[in-house]
Amino acid sequence: MSLREWEAPAVGDTVSRRTEMAAREALAGRRRGIRAVLPFLGPAFIAAVAYIDPGNFATNIQSGAEFGYNLLWVVLLANLMAMLIQSMSAKLGIATGKNLPELCRQRFSPRVVTGMWIVSEVAAMATDIAEFLGATVGLALLFHIPLIVGTVLTGLATYAILMLDRHGFRPLEALIGTLVGVIAASYLVETLLSRPAWGQVAYHSVVPWLGNSASILLMVGIVGATVMPHVVYLHSGLTQNRIVPRNEGEARRIHRLETVDVVLAMALAGLINMAMLYMSASVFHNTGHQDIASISTAYRTLTPLLGGAAAAVFLVSLLASGFSSSAVGTMAGQVIMQGFVGFTIPVWLRRVVTMLPTVIIVLLGLNPTETLVLSQVVLSLVLPIPVIALIKFTDRRDLMGTLVNSRLVAAGAVACAGVIVFLNIVLLWQTFGLPLPFRLGA
Questions:
Q1: Is there a domain that residue 79 lies in?
Q2: Residue 351, domain extent
Q3: Domain membership flag for residue 19
Q4: Residues 294, 299, 302: CA angle, nearest 5 degrees
Q5: Radius of gyration of the chain (CA)
Q6: What b-and-e string marks burial along 325-341, b requiring 16 or more CB atoms within 10 Å of the CB?
Q7: Mean pLDDT in order along the chain per 10 residues (442 residues)
Q8: How far does CA 81 lie from the centroid of its chain?
Q9: For residue 3, is it within any domain?
């Protein structure tokens, strides 16, 4: 494992500088308990935003409305997979000082790298469609403005969020963490108002159910919306130079503390996702509104069922999700381009370019929620590529040193990749109209 020299942050970066100084004190054993953990919290919360983006709203609401509580087990499974994969991605950045795309460019042939870059950019665009559409729809419904105006406002808001990065990593982490808190608080309110059947929630969280071809599509969408390829790349970039280890002991200590960050952030994201689905199951499926297939319809149906306050809280959470996840998507796009092809473009230009598909969708009048669900399926199809590359690199002792995957972690990662590939094969099998070799439950 190559060790890197630590450099003090710029004097102007006061908050980030204090965070790094506190992290050094924790590594030296001068901070204990929660005070030792706090400086390392942040990267996973940025990554977690992608797990509660508007694509999750679309797939979870549609799943709950159509199939009740039955697909909660998929949400739980996808979140456990995300926890493992994001922990591995964070560990890769800590151990190597490089992000996943950079290692791919160094270790794979130019032809393979070019293919991976193109596919990853497609995934980043599919991600941005979901995030932009979600915030745009939220603005349109909350303030009664045209969708195209909402698109422009979303672009400006996310660009303003990204500009915080000029002041160091901590202000951006703090803002995005706050937006995650807004989403969590919103769904706490929705839970209290929707009064789900907790026995059903507990049962269907652990008992698998396959259903029919429509449920399979939503299962793949849930996995694609939860375990997202662009943040598999991004998380390694967030940790590669944040707190640089000066020896193997520090690397292990940083990894342990970053694991706390991952567990807390991903557990919160998982609870929010489950709340989205069981709220939809309780409010829509159990009241005869199984045909709720769009965010707009969900909002309008919530008003008479739970009242205007519940509908407004729903839209606030959607806006917080759209703004924060769109900013994170742009950050991931920069890491993908810089890592795979060695150059970057200005943030404003990437923001404009990635807005274009959403603008086209709005101008063509396509159904936003159907587009959101399909974008998540695209993400699931792309997902095996970064996951397999991540497994390959984190299994190499010459790259990872003492942070190389244990046998248990390696087995879990291979199992995750297997589940993703299996769901994709089933989806493609159905897409071509072929009969499944097994019988789906009723």
A1: yes
A2: 40-431
A3: no
A4: 120
A5: 21
A6: bbbbbbbbbbbbbbbbe
A7: 41 68 85 87 88 78 87 90 92 93 93 89 75 78 82 83 78 87 87 88 90 74 70 90 86 92 92 89 77 63 67 83 83 87 76 73 69 65 85 93 92 88 72 57 46
A8: 12
A9: no
| Cα dihedral 241→243→245→249 (10° resolution) | -140
Q: Which residue is it, tokens 């159905």?
A: 430
Q: 143, 151, 131: which is closest to 327 by C-alpha?
A: 131
Q: The tokens 């709203």 sit on which residue?
A: 57
What span, in angstroms and rounded, lies between the C-alpha atoms of 255 and 346?
32
CATH code of 168's domain: 1.20.1740.10
Give the residue among 310, 327, 161, 335 at the shortest CA–CA distance from 232. 335
**Residue 441: inside a domain, yes or no?**
no
Q: Alpha-carbon distance 391 to 404, whole Å?
A: 10
Locate 20 and state its tokens: 């790094």
Q: How far apart are the first and last CA of the chain?
A: 52
Q: Say how far apart CA 345 and CA 349 lie, in whole Å.
A: 7
pTM exceeds 0.90, yes or no: no
DSSP 144: T
d(CA 311, CA 426): 36
**CB-facing half-sphere around the CA of 242: CA atoms within 13 A:** 32
Half-sphere exposure of residue 248, counting CA atoms within 13 Å on the CB side? Answer: 9
Neighbours of 247 (CB within 10 A): 11
Tokens of 131: 């995030």
- Both tokens of residue 292? 């709720």
- Map residue 31 onto helix, strand or coil: coil
Contacts of 15 (CB under 8 A, 6+ apart): 167, 168, 170, 171, 174
Say how many domains are in the chain.
1
Tell me the C-alpha to C-alpha distance, in Å, between residue 293 and each of 64, 115, 263: 10, 34, 32
Query: CA 242, CA 248: separation in Å to the nearest integer?
Result: 16
